[in-house]
């Protein structure tokens, strides 16, 4: 089980195919499974691997709170297609809680120094756990941005949309979808922090490019 070598183009292609019909490595919410695979990548997937790149950009927004995501982080070879063996060279995670030895020596009689060391490590472990940040409420939104006609420069339209930068907003993958009479709409994904970015704000900012944009609709909205 695995993705092959995630530091190679072949392994990234396996990851991209695996994520074609999935939002996360396991289940329906980000978890330690996503953290394990994300940490194994040496760089973002290329643009043509858009499923993997969409997942990578989404998980990148969780880097500050990745330690608090649910689940137990398992070896990389425990994730991925069943018929692919993992061969990624794994690096040691400096923040891994496993680095903290809660039990110390197995000897029945421990010295006072060993007991003190164990108590200090337990205290450090508890302090570390208590400082983990709370999860931030986020949503994944798929937007339909419609042009005025078939002569609208869709590349320029998308470039204008992506110039919208806000705290709590992360743009993802996009594509052009035919709507008839030679007209195509821009369908673009974004992830927002609910407390910072609203759909009404996005609509106001996007439709402000009035020479290019006729309207904006929400095609899909999912809480993360």
Automatic annotation (TrEMBL):
Catalytic subunit of the guanine nucleotide exchange factor (GEF) (eEF1B subcomplex) of the eukaryotic elongation factor 1 complex (eEF1). Stimulates the exchange of GDP for GTP on elongation factor 1A (eEF1A), probably by displacing GDP from the nucleotide binding pocket in eEF1A. InterPro entries: eEF-1beta-like_sf (IPR036219), EF-1_beta_acid_region_euk (IPR018940), EF1B_bsu/dsu (IPR049720), EF1B_bsu/dsu_GNE (IPR014038), Glutathione-S-Trfase_C-like (IPR010987), Glutathione-S-Trfase_C_sf (IPR036282), Transl_elong_EF1B/ribsomal_bS6 (IPR014717), Transl_elong_EF1B_B/D_CS (IPR001326). This is Elongation factor 1-beta. Residues 92-104 have a biased composition (Acidic residues). EF-1 is composed of 4 subunits: alpha, beta (alpha subunit of the eEF1B subcomplex), delta (beta subunit of the eEF1B subcomplex), and gamma (gamma subunit of the eEF1B subcomplex). Interacts with elongation factor EEF1A1. It comes from the Eukaryota. PROSITE patterns: EF1BD_1, EF1BD_2, GST_CTER. The gene is Eef1b2. It comes from Polyodon spathula (North American paddlefish). Pfam families: EF-1_beta_acid, EF1_GNE.
């Amino acid at each position: 089980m695995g993705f092959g070598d995630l530091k190679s183009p072949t392994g990234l292609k396996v990851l991209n195919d695996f994520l074609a019909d999935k939002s996360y490595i396991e289940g329906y919410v980000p978890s330690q499974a996503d953290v394990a695979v994300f940490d194994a990548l040496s760089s973002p997937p290329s643009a043509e691997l858009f499923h993997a790149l969409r997942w990578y950009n989404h998980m990148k927004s969780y880097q500050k709170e990745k330690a608090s995501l649910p689940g137990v982080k398992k070896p990389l070879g425990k994730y991925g297609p069943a018929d692919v063996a993992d061969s990624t060279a794994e690096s040691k995670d400096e923040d891994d809680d496993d680095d903290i030895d809660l039990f110390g020596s197995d000897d029945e009689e421990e010295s006072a120094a060993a007991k003190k060391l164990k108590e200090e490590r337990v205290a450090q472990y508890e302090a570390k756990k208590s400082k983990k940040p709370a999860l931030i409420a986020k949503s994944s939104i798929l937007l339909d941005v419609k042009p005025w006609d078939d002569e609208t420069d869709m590349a320029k339209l998308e470039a204008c949309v992506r110039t919208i930068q806000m705290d709590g907003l992360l743009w993802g993958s996009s594509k052009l979808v035919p709507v008839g009479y030679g007209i195509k709409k821009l369908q673009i994904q974004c992830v927002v922090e609910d407390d910072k970015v609203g759909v009404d704000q996005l609509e106001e900012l996007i439709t402000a490019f009035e020479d290019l944009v006729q309207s904006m609709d929400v095609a899909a909205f999912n809480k993360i």
